[in-house]
Design a protein that fits this description.
Length: 126
């Protein structure tokens, strides 16, 4: 026996940020209110069935001009994997120099996406 529920969230598919109200049954959107464009429908379906997030963090850098370098996932990854990804990224310590776009971890936690550097970071001046 299925159970319907109502879920409210903000659509981030475009800059408008519509307040969506979805009636859902498991991972299926039965009814949606509040979207002002078709992208809201796609966003709601994806968010209910398989929520994805772009991961951002920092990694430690040895001998760099700064002690850490910002990193992110190249593409969004499953929300359910974010804690596992966080644990793996926390283990990383890189030597300087680092180049923007450099792959830091390939296929992080089997998600099919890489963790990449968000900036270039040179060696600490002596």
């Amino acid at each position: 026996m299925s159970k319907t529920e109502t879920k409210k969230f903000i659509c981030v598919a475009c800059p408008v940020g519509c307040a969506l109200t979805a009636t859902i049954d498991g991972t299926e959107v039965l009814e949606l209110e509040g979207n002002t464009c078709p992208r809201g429908v796609t966003y709601a379906r994806d968010e209910v069935a398989n929520p994805m997030r772009t991961f951002t963090s920092t990694v430690r850098v040895g001998g760099g001009a700064l002690p850490v370098c910002p990193v992110r996932s190249r593409t969004p990854l499953p929300l359910k994997k974010v804690f596992d990804v966080t644990k793996e990224v926390a283990k990383v310590s890189l030597p300087a120099p680092i180049t923007i776009g450099q792959v830091i971890i390939e296929n992080i936690c089997g998600t099919g996406t890489d963790i990449i550097a968000c900036r270039s970071l040179g060696v600490r001046p002596r």
